[in-house]
Amino acid sequence: MCTDIIEQRNVALDQILAERRSYRVFTAEFPPDDEIRRILHAGLLAPFAAAAVGNSKDYFRRFFVIRNGSTNLNAIRHLVMNHVAVMAQELEHGMEKDPNLRKKAGMFFQRLSAIKAKGVVPGIGTAPFYIVVAERKGFPPVELQSLAHCMENMWLKATALELGFQLVSVTSQMSGNPEFCKILGITPGEWELMGCAVGYPTDELSPSIRPPVDDVTRWL
Ligand SMILES: Cc1cc2nc3c(=O)[nH]c(=O)nc-3n(C[C@H](O)[C@H](O)[C@H](O)COP(=O)(O)O)c2cc1C
Q1: FRET pair for 72, CA 20 to 30 Å: which of 108, 211, 214, 218?
Q2: Residue 22 C-alpha to ligand 1 middle, in angstroms?
Q3: Residue 174, pLDDT score
Q4: What is the position in ligand 1's atom list of the atom closest to the CA of 208?
C-alpha cells in the first residue's frame, strides 16, 4: 500500500481514537437502526477467546437492542434499580464488618447510593438505545475481557458515526438475574453481560487528554 494511503488511514484512526469519549447526556432523537447495526457489526469484528468458547454451533456473542420508552426498557430499568439497591445494602453490611472493604469500596458505595437516591441508572432510560451484549461463559472464564474488546470496537464505530456512547457496566451485575435474562431470552448464569447507551450527545466533548507516552512507559 502506498505511504500516502497508510498515512491517511492513520490520521483517520488516530482522530477516532482521540475523539472517543464517554458521553452521558443524550438528546431524545433515535439514531437510524442501520447505524446501530453498523455499531453491532463492529462489535462482531472484535476478537473472541476461541479456545475458551470452543466451536459450538450456537454463536457465543449476542446483541440486544432496547429502545427507550419501550415496555422492556421500563421493566429493565426497574430490575436494575432494585439490583442496585440490594448491592448497596449488601455492600453497606459488608463495610460495617470489614474496615478494609470500607476503604476499598467507599467510592463505589457512594456511587450506588447516588443512583438509588436519584432513581436513575445512568445509561438506562437516559439515552435512545440501551444495548446489552452477551458472551457465552467458557473456560477459562474470560468473557468479560472479550466483552471489553467488543465494547471498544462498538465505541470506536459509534465515534466514527458521530454518535455518543456510554458504558453501562452495572449490566454485568445482571447476568444471574432470572427476570433480566428472561427479557433477553437467555438462560441466567450461562452468559456474561455488558451494556452501553447510544444516542446523539447534547454537547461535544474535547478529545481525550492523556499523559505523554514516554512518561508512562519503560522500555526494558
Ligand atoms: C471497565 C469500565 C467500566 C466503566 N463503567 C462505566 C459506567 O458504568 N458508566 C459510565 O458512565 N462510564 C463508565 N466507564 C467509562 C469511564 O468512566 C471513562 O472511560 C473514563 O472516565 C475516561 O473518560 P473517557 O471515556 O471520556 O475518555 C467505564 C470504563 C471502564 C474501562
Answers
A1: 108
A2: 6
A3: 97
A4: 27
